């Protein structure tokens, strides 16, 4: 019997075959795409060294033998390894920006990126007036970099406890040419931040997955660093530390924009007296909470 790739002549053929194989293999998506077609298209275009947003013009192009083999090999690797596509390609795309990634960091996908595309409007009335931004648990540095693009007058600190994440974040800051505005810091949350510095905005996508959910993660998510995902029994272990100290690092009218995923119930149980504003995006509802410095400071005096 002939090998599968000898019967696949065009990119359209390969795309149909890859989608079928993904469905048959029970893959789980959620690391940049949420369905088999988009992920198959991304991987095939990457294998062919084509732009990730230009599928249609090439669908009926016939492929060379070595091109077909590259495509088939990458699709097989996605199926057999169950690694997220970004780890196979070494890159991820968020809000149209390219970021370098590997298994030292989670794959960039935070819905906070959508809010940064609008410069956090209407909560930030004058983006040009923002002077300082902190991205806690920065991972790949993607939110810090998007913040630098949204707030062009601001200096950005990007902090993470993981040496590997710090290395990846440095690489992305260099990729985007932002070395003069984005400082990557190895820090256990606030511990190693510049003394006395306060921030107009703190962004944070911390480890927040509760223990039960961690135990049930699909194989794709198990390839990501546990340090960046696991939030303890209720998912709030680090969130408690972040929230309890945030007011001391914010300017008087500063805001904390905190992602907590599907842990809203646990967040509200952990902070019953803390007023927060829930921010929805196209991709996510009830997963991001905005907390103001005055509210955080008042809450801290009562706990």
Short description:
This protein has 303 residues and is of the alpha/beta class. Helix content is 37%, strand content 16%.
Layout: helices, strands, pairs:
Layout: H1 11-25, H2 36-47, H3 65-81, H4 85-89, E1 91-94, E2 97-100, H5 112-117, E3 132-136, H6 142-150, E4 155-160, H7 163-175, E5 182-186, E6 199-204, H8 211-215, H9 219-222, H10 237-246, E7 250-259, H11 264-270, E8 277-279, E9 288-292, H12 293-302
Parallel strand pairs: 3-4, 3-6, 4-5, 6-7
Antiparallel strand pairs: 1-2, 7-9, 8-9
Helix pairs in contact: 1-2, 1-3, 2-3, 10-12
Describe the structure.
Helix content is about 35%, strand content about 15%. The chain has twelve helices and nine strands. Strand 8 (about 275-280) and strand 9 (about 290) form a beta hairpin. The mean pLDDT is about 95.
Name some characteristics of this structure:
Rossmann fold; two-stranded antiparallel sheet; 2 domains; 303 residues; 16% strand; 12 helices; alpha/beta; seven-stranded mixed sheet; single chain; Helicase, Ruva Protein, domain 3
């Amino acid at each position: 019997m002939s090998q599968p790739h000898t019967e696949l002549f065009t990119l359209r053929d390969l795309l149909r075959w890859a989608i079928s194989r993904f469905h048959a293999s029970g893959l789980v998506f959620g690391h940049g795409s949420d369905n088999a077609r988009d992920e198959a298209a991304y991987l095939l275009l990457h294998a062919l060294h084509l732009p990730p947003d230009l599928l249609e013009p090439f669908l009926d192009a016939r492929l060379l033998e070595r091109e077909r083999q590259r495509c088939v090999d990458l699709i097989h690797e996605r199926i057999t390894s169950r690694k997220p596509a970004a780890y196979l390609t070494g890159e991820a795309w968020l809000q149209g920006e390219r970021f370098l990634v590997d298994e030292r960091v989670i794959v960039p996908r935070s819905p906070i990126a959508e809010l940064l595309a609008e410069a956090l409007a209407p909560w930030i009335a004058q983006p040009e007036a923002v002077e300082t931004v902190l991205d806690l648990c920065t991972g790949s540095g993607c939110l810090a970099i998007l913040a630098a693009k949204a707030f062009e007058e601001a200096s950005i600190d990007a902090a993470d406890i993981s040496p590997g994440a710090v290395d990846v974040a440095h690489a992305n800051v260099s990729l985007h040419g932002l070395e003069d505005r984005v400082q990557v810091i190895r820090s256990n949350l606030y511990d190693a931040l510049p003394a006395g510095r306060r921030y107009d905005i703190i962004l944070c996508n911390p480890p927040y997955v509760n223990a039960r959910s961690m135990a049930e993660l699909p194989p794709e998510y198990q390839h990501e660093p546990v340090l960046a995902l696991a939030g303890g029994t209720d998912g709030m272990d680090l969130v408690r530390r972040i929230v309890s100290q945030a007011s001391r690092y914010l300017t008087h009218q500063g805001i904390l924009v905190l992602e907590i995923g599907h842990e809203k119930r646990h967040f509200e149980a952990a902070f019953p007296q803390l007023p927060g504003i829930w921010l929805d995006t196209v991709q996510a509802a009830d997963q991001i909470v905005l907390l103001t410095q005055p509210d955080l400071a008042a809450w801290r005096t009562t706990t």
